[in-house]
Amino acid sequence: MATKDTEDDIYAYGLSVALTKVAAPSTVGLYSSCPRRIQGLLRKIETNMKKESERREKKYPPAQKKGSLWNFLSILLRMIFYWPKWSDKHKERKNFQYIFIRFNAWHFTGTDKLWAGLVITLCESFQTIFGSFLISIFRTSQQIDESVKKTIKESCEKEWIAKKICCLPLWLLTLVTAPLVIGLIAVVIIVGFPVGDSSDDGITAFESMAIATLGLPAAGAVRFTFLLSKNLMFSQDFNIQRLMDKPRMSTQLGFMNEVRKEVEVLTNFIRFMEVYERRNIRVVLEITNLDRCTPEKIVGVLEAINILLSGENVPFISILAIDPRVIVKSVESSKSFEGMDKNGYLFLNRIVTLPFTVPEMEISSKRSVFRKLVERQSEFPEDDEIEESQEISYKAERSQVLEESFMESGILYESQIPLISSTPDRREHNVTIQKTVKDLIKESLRVISDEGTEGTFNDYLMENSIYMRRIINSVRVSIIIMAARKRELPPAKEVAAWIVLANQWPCRLSWILQCIEDDEQRAAIDKNVTGEDSIDETKCLWDVFCESRIELHLIKDQIKNLLEMDGDPELFEMFLKKDFLFTIKKAKFFKAFTVNLDQSIKKELEIIRGSKSLKDTIKSEKATPLKTGLVLQMNEDDVCKEMKKLKFNETNAGKYMQRIKENNLNGRALLFGHNNEIKNALQMSMGEWTDFSIHFLGIKPQAVCPARDSSPYLTSVQPSAISVENLVVGESTRA
User: What is the rounded CA–CA span in Å between residue 576 and residue 504?
Assistant: First the structure.
C-alpha cells in the first residue's frame, strides 16, 4: 500500500527536479531555520536525483561499464596517450551522473581558512569515489597548460587527441620502442652486456646503439614513475594542508592560486570522465552548518563558492543549507564589510542563483514530528517490566525482613527493627512516586501534541526540532524536580504551557518576573504608607505586562538582542490573554522549577531597570529616582503623594500640588512632556525643581546640565521625542 507523501517529500521532489534542469555552475540556497528538517530534505533530494539518474541511464546507457578490468585499463591508456576534447556538444547528452559530497562547515571551524577545508573535502571525496591511484595517474599524465589547450582547440578530432612527440603519436612511439627495449633487456639478461677492449678509449657500436635506444624512453619512464609516486604519496588535500601550515602562506595570494589549481585539476578530471563515459557528470556539493561558524569564516566560504566553484564550465552545483537570518547578520557584522554598504541580503543574492525557502510546517506535521521525538527520547519499552519486577522484589524483601525480625526478636535490639523494615517502605513509596511522575510527564507531552479539544498549543509549536527537544527535556526535568522537592504536582496542561511560555518568549517572561519582584520590593518599601507589604497574587501575568509594556519599549534598544530571542508578540498576547491565564501565584510556584529559562536574561533586565538598588534604599531617608514603569502608572494624586517624600516647604508644596492637578500632570505627562514646559507649569524654584526632576524623571534639569547623562539607567528614561501612540503600536512589532 502506497504511503501518502508528506509536505517535505513534495518540496524535495520539486527542488530535485529543478536541480536536474539547472545548468552548472549553480548555487542553490536551501533556507530553513530547522537543521533537522534541512538534513531530511537533503537526503530526499539525493534519493530523487539518483532515481532520475538511473532512469536516464536505462534510456541512454553510458559508453563504458564500471567495475571491469578492461574498463580500468582503458581509462589508464586514455589518460597516458590522449587528451580529451570537451565541447558544447557534450552538454546535449541526456544521461547524467550525480556525485553528492557533504561539507559540514562546523568540522573545519578550527582552521584558519574554512574555505580551504571545503576544497580539502572535495579532494578527499574524489579520491574515495574514483580511487587515489586513478586521480594520481590523471594528475601525472594530464597536465593541461596553455599550449595543450591551444592544441586541443585547433585539433579536428571529435573527442580524443593523441599526445605527440616530434610529430609522432606517443602511443606509436611506445609500440615501436617497447619491443626494442624488451629485446635489449632480454639480451642483457641472457648473454650479458658486451664491453670493448679496456685499452680502447671509445665504446663498442653495440654499446652506443643500446644507450641511444634506451636513453629517451628510459628517461620518460623514470620521470613518469617519479611524478606518479609523488602524487600517490602527496595527495591534493595534503598539499593544501601543507600550504596552510607555512608561515603567513595562508594570507598570501599564492595560497588562493594553489587552491584554484587544485579545483581546476578536479574540474579537468570530471571533463575527462564525461568524454570517456559519454555522459554528463554533476558534483552536488551540500554545505551544512555554515550558520554555526564565525562571521569571517562564513564570508570566506561564500566568497570561495563565488570565486572557485563558479568559473566557466565548472560542473559544481552548490547547495547552501542555511538559516538566512543568521548568515545575513554574520555577513553584516564581518570586518570584510567595513566601509561598505552592509546589506547581507544583497550579498547573498549575488551568490545564490536558485533560492528555495522551505515553507513552514503544517500543524499536523509539527505534531507528528513532536510525537516521533517523544518516542525516541522516551524510556525504554522494558522499563515497565523493570518497575513491576522491582515492586515485586520490594514486597518480597519486605515480607522476608518482617519474618526474620519475628524469628530473631530475642536477639535483635528493639531499635534495629524499624530501621530494617523502613527500607522496603521507602522503596515502595518511591515506586509510587515514580509512576505518578511518569504519568504526568506522558500526559504533559501528550497535551502539547493533542489534536482534540485540548489542542491549544497548535499556534505555539515551532517547527524547529531543537526547540521541540528543549520542550521535551524541560518537561521531564521540571516534573522530576517538583516531585523531588515534594511539591504538589500541578495539572499536566499547566506544566506544558509554562514550559512552552519560557521556551518561546524568554525575554518577555523574564521581564514579567522582574516586574513582579520589583513590585514586591516596592510594596515592602511603601508598607508604612499603604499598610500592605504584599501584592495581589491573583493578578494575571498579562495585566502585569500591560502595565509595564511602555517601559519595556523605552529600553528596547538596550535589550535588542534579548527581544530577538522571543517569538511572535501577537501570539504572546493570545497565549497569556486568552489561552493560558497564568496568575502571579502560579508564576511564583513555577519559577523555582523553570529550568529552561536563562536567569541571566532576568539579571540583565534587573540591571537596566535599576531595580537592584531598591532594597538598598529601604532605610534611606533621601528620595531616589523612581522607575519609569512606576511613574507611568501614576495619576495626579499619586504624583502629589509621592512628592511629599521630597519634603518641600509646606506652603510651596501645597501650591505645587494644586498646579499638578490643574495641569493634569500625571505620570505620562511628566515622562513625555518637555522639561521646560513642566517647570513653567509648576513654577518651582531651581533647587526644588532639581529634586523634583531627579526623583520623577531620573535626570538633571536641562537648564542646569545641558549635557545628558549617558548611563544606562538615565538613557532609558528619555522619551520626550516619542509619542505615546507610537510606543503602543511599536510594542506589537517584533524588535
Answer: 12
